[in-house]
Design goal:
Layout lengths: L2 H10 L1 E7 L3 H12 L4 E4 L15 E2 L11 H17 L5 E10 L6 H15 L8 E3 L1 H7 L8 E11 L2 H14 L3 E3 L2 E8 L5 E8 L5 E11 L5 H8 L7 E12 L8 E5 L5 E7 L2 E5 L3 E2 L11 H14 L12 E10 L14 E5 L5 E5 L5 H12 L9 H4 L13 H11 L3 H11 L3 H5 L26 H16 L5 H8 L2 H4 L8 H12 L3 H18 L2 H5 L12
Parallel strand pairs: 1-2, 1-10, 2-7, 4-12, 10-18
Antiparallel strand pairs: 3-6, 4-6, 5-6, 8-9, 9-10, 11-14, 11-15, 11-16, 12-13, 13-14, 17-18
């Protein structure tokens, strides 16, 4: 994952397929094509997983609610892919029990829920980790005592999986690189090269970090740019009709102590829309909204209406929790690049399936799709573009473990020893080891040597002295070094959001670590003092953007939403 080497190869080599977009869809296509021996390149205008693929609900799931719109093929494929990912990436696809309470007046009654979950189980087959079972009101409340009891009819327990969406995307890209793909982040496509008959024969691109311009040639160019797919198409044909309907999904993160649930819980928005409250280590995050968005995808933000909608759903489901906007640790907004229907309907009723479009110039565009189905989607698309590579023999390669699962992780004894060595809580080290899988050894290799294995006691003038003996910072520094050396992290934001999720799931969003971590990156990447300061300021601005809705909320402030218990 040496970026400079990759840029040289992008410009110097001829590629069979060039993928524009480094989210999960582009990553999955690039991996599948590389596995089949094609010469593949992938470029991303920002960081890998910058858009939708780091801003999702972070679930690997079948999509239970899509059964209502009879998208049986989509749900079946998603459940099968969920089961495969449990083997391909056990460090990232985590089996999670879900509790689905049903209340009087809900759009889906107990019988309909039982029928849907029965199908869910059938699709999963014998490998289903948690077969569903229906439970009465008393058992629902025994599982999650904080739930509203008024009108509770019963519910169901079933299994799905949660993930780190950004790291999953990164591991898919790393797998593609292992099989020969050339990839680079922060490469902006601003035009297309033309061959005979005006056919697209590659791209004109600019390195956004240096301003250097270059060309990359390829037999085929495929756009998997998510919310930016229409913009890329217009570079080829300014009159190209829009393919997408963008809808915004917002999530809020709360301290687990304020919403102490033990399993993921299905909750309802004010109009009955399904949402989730999901425990994640010391936090609980809640979402998502589903509203139309017609602005610049890079400017999507959480607004006060989004926050009120989510908190209202939390208050309705957990009336005694007293959650207010002051409890929010972080908030993120992402865009779903849904297929534009002939007639606009309720956003939640718009299909989550995908479609491939072929422009007269030969440009291929992928629109729609789900995180869970990335592997199957990539396989189907490569089948279609390169029919000669089809064959069931490729399935074993396609479903082989991703990098984090390809080598053994740390033993229980290793975790205990590392916790003692670094002074970090054992639970914290165990979580890291579990999260990285075999890749944790790369992080461990970046820890201080034995002679200086305790955190240093001589912080730089720019560093908060109180952080000098922070063992978690010792690990954060090692994670930064690993991210820069092996994961193509080139901006501070790449690390604190997408390589570590420090920005999303720590109480201060990582503000206290920005200086020390920027210092690490400056040493590795040769940043000037001015560049280092600019990286810190950009991250502070990104954190502030999470809370811009506070300025809109006005007197709403610490509003508490009370409901009948």
């Amino acid at each position: 994952m040496n970026r400079q080497e990759m840029l040289t190869r992008l410009a110097d080599q001829e590629h069979d397929l060039l993928v524009v977009g480094g989210g999960i869809t582009g990553a999955g296509i690039a991996r599948e094509a590389s596995l089949r021996g094609l010469r593949v390149a992938l470029v991303e205008a920002a960081d890998f997983a910058y858009g939708t693929s780091s801003r999702s609900t972070k679930l690997i799931h079948g999509g239970l609610r899509y059964l209502k719109s009879f998208e049986l093929r989509l749900v079946r494929e998603s459940v099968i892919e969920r089961q495969r990912l449990l083997v391909m990436a056990p460090n990232l696809a985590k089996v999670t029990p879900f509790l689905f309470p049903v209340y009087r007046g809900d759009p889906d009654g107990l019988l309909k829920l039982h029928a849907g979950l029965t199908l869910y189980d059938l699709f999963a087959g014998k490998s289903n980790p948690i077969a569903h079972r229906m439970v009465g009101p008393g058992e629902v409340l025994s599982f999650e005592p904080g739930l509203r009891s008024a009108g509770l009819l019963g519910g169901a327990v079933y299994g799905d999986s949660r993930t780190d969406d950004a790291r999953l995307t990164l591991e898919v890209i790393q797998s593609a690189v292992t099989h020969g793909a050339v990839v680079a982040n922060y490469v902006q496509v601003d035009g297309f090269l033309r061959g005979p008959g005006g056919r697209v024969a590659g791209v004109r691109a600019v390195d956004r970090l240096t301003g250097d311009r270059f060309e990359a040639r390829a037999g085929s160019v495929l756009t998997a740019a998510g919310p930016w797919a229409d913009a890329v198409r217009r570079l080829d044909d300014p009159a190209a009709p829009p393919l997408l309907r963008l809808t915004k999904g917002v999530h809020l993160t709360l301290p687990r102590a304020r919403l102490p649930i033990e399993r993921a819980v299905v909750i309802r928005g004010r109009e009955g829309r399904m949402m989730f409250a999901i425990p994640s280590d010391d936090c609980t995050y809640v979402g998502t909204t589903d509203t139309d968005y017609d602005g610049d995808p890079s400017q999507v933000r959480v607004n006060s209406e989004d926050v009120e909608y989510v908190l209202e759903a939390v208050g309705r489901a957990f009336p005694d929790a007293g959650i207010g906007d002051g409890d929010i640790i972080s908030a993120w907004a992402g865009l779903r690049p849904l297929l534009r229907p002939a007639k606009l309907r309720d956003p939640s009723a718009t299909s989550r399936d995908y479609k491939v479009f072929f422009s007269p110039s030969g440009l291929v565009t992928v629109a729609g799709g789900k995180l869970t189905g990335f592997r199957a989607m990539g396989s189907h698309i490569v089948d279609r573009l390169y029919a000669a590579t089809r064959g069931s023999s490729h399935l074993a390669k396609s479903t082989a473990p991703l990098p984090g699962a390809a080598s053994p992780g740390l033993s229980t004894e290793d975790v205990t020893a590392l916790a003692a060595r670094t002074g970090a809580p054992r639970l914290y080290v165990a979580r890291l080891a579990d999260h990285y899988g075999g890749a944790i050894r790369g992080v461990v290799a970046q820890l201080p040597e034995a002679a200086a294995e305790r955190p240093r006691e001589d912080p730089s003038p720019r560093e908060d002295p109180s952080k000098a003996s922070d063992p978690v910072l010792t690990w954060a520094r090692a994670r930064v070094r690993h991210a820069v050396k092996g994961e193509m992290a080139v901006r501070l934001e790449d690390v604190i959001w997408r390589r570590t999720e420090i920005m999303l799931f720590t109480a201060d969003n990582g503000r206290g670590y920005l200086g020390p971590l920027a210092e690490e990156m400056a040493t590795l990447l040769g940043w000037s003092a001015a560049r280092q300061g600019a990286e810190i300021e950009q991250c502070r601005q990104r954190i502030d953007d999470m809370f811009v809705w506070r300025k809109e909320a006005g007197k709403w402030g610490q509003k508490r939403i009370a409901f009948e218990r």
